Amino acid sequence: MGKSKVLVVGGTGYIGRRIVKACLAEGHETYVVQRPELGLQIEKLQMLLSFKKQGAHLVQASFSDHKSLVDAVKKVDVVISAISGVHFRTHCITLQSKLVDAIKEAGNVKRFLPSEFGLDPARMGDALEPGRVTFVDKMSVRKAIEEANIPFTYISANLFAGYFAGSLSQMGSFVPPRDKVHLFGDGTLKAVFLDEDDVATYTVKAIDDPRTLNKTLYLRPPENILSQAELIGIWEKLIGKELEKTYIPPEGFLTTLKGLDYKLQVGIGHFYHIFYEGCLTNFEIGEEGAEASKLYPEVNYKRMDEYLKVYV
């Protein structure tokens, strides 16, 4: 069988642009939605045109025009949504219900990958407010997908390195400190950090794989399963200096969280579950899931010592 034709929705976004690149690199006929709402966002337009130069097809479609979505979906075999789900930027997760409706009507899609790419929302039913909204919204999209009997793969990519590794998981910065660092609790609970290009690579490899059909694909490359303390240790070795450490107890973290703007509370509240509860690694992957690095051992994923070198 040939490679699937793929439609990427949200192709100019943080993960979407990497997924477009990975689709092209893997030899998929790639379509990217160009929304008329783009308006005067020239950087996004130029990115779309660069995709076109690389061989992608641009498709005019809008969430406000059901027929245009249906027409776009009919061109492909697989739909990957990468629309934003980050509250302090734009949160559009529930818009995907319109995409689900279009896929259902088109009737030709053999796999849909909704925009998740983070913590597994199915495991976050007890998440703190207001951050719980992220998982509630993602689960509402899952419910619509499954009720429509649309074949799916969910991607649990854990922590994007750009957000969590480059900063050593500090709040309020994306670059690593060189003098003082805060650790959550004792800093020993394990998390999983991924280079965003690797997230895209694993995602695209899964779309034609029967082993990931109607399952959650967990991205857990073993050498990137690290505690915050271990991540800091990698940075200290790179710069040849030990940082001054402050340990934040859980009650101190929750007190700080309450004083933040709502949008920040939503995102930063997830830190609690990651670093105080170990929600990314405190479970075994069952039959409902699969682990990417085991399925695709040929992917030479970026280790965090290599990732952090650019900041030195």
UniProtKB/TrEMBL annotation:
**Name this polypeptide is given:** Isoflavone reductase homolog
Q: Does the keyword Secreted apply?
A: no
Identify the residues that the record assigns to the NmrA-like domain, covering every copy: 3-308
Which GO BP terms, alphabetically? Answer: lignan biosynthetic process
Gene symbol here is LOC106765640
Asked if the Swiss-Prot or TrEMBL record annotates the protein with the keyword Electron transport, the reply is no
| UniProt KW keywords | NADP, Oxidoreductase
- Domain of life, per lineage: Eukaryota
What InterPro entries does the entry give? NAD(P)-bd_dom_sf (IPR036291), NmrA-like (IPR008030), NmrA-type/Isoflavone_red_sf (IPR050608), PCBER-like (IPR045312)
